[in-house]
Amino acid sequence: MKNYWDKGISFEEYLQIAKERLENPANQQEAEFKQYYELGLQRMDRTVKKYVPDEDQLKELAAKNFDGKILIISEAWCGDASATVPALFRFFEGHNEVRVFLRDSDKSLINQFLTNGTESIPKVLILDKDLNVKTSWGPRPKYGYELLMKYKADPETYTKDMFYNDLQIYYAKNRGKDAVQEILDLL
């Protein structure tokens, strides 16, 4: 795990890489994902500007005496990640070190933390101070998962567009609070 941690990047580096990929795609996938990078950057910018850590959650973090680190497997084009990653960085800022490991740079990490057989992101790894994995979380809060199950149960009535719209409205209103709480519950 130390190897993955050492290859992890800061939130600022994560944003910079996303901007570079948007402006100068290095390969076909980056070019095809241009609109997703653009949306992701807009959403992350909004979260960074509007996110304020919840005082009760900060007290809960302090009470848990968590001395570990947070490693997030992510990519900036991912809608779930753009809603969650900035809030996690801001919440843990000044308390616990947080880094991002770019999923597509080396699939060997995400392949250890598949979600129902898929490489879904973001995947948050909660590490102890020695970089051992205590547990993981992701790729979306419980409510987002419930919306996904609603879509999968009846995609003709609750369409993919409806699912994505409801999910983004939820993320915009919730501003990472549920994701932070679910991760706090795991500490």
TrEMBL record:
Show the InterPro entries listed in the entry: Thioredoxin-like_sf
Q: What is this protein called?
A: Thioredoxin family protein
Q: Name the Pfam families for this protein.
A: Thioredoxin_9
The record's section on SUPFAM superfamilies has: Thioredoxin-like
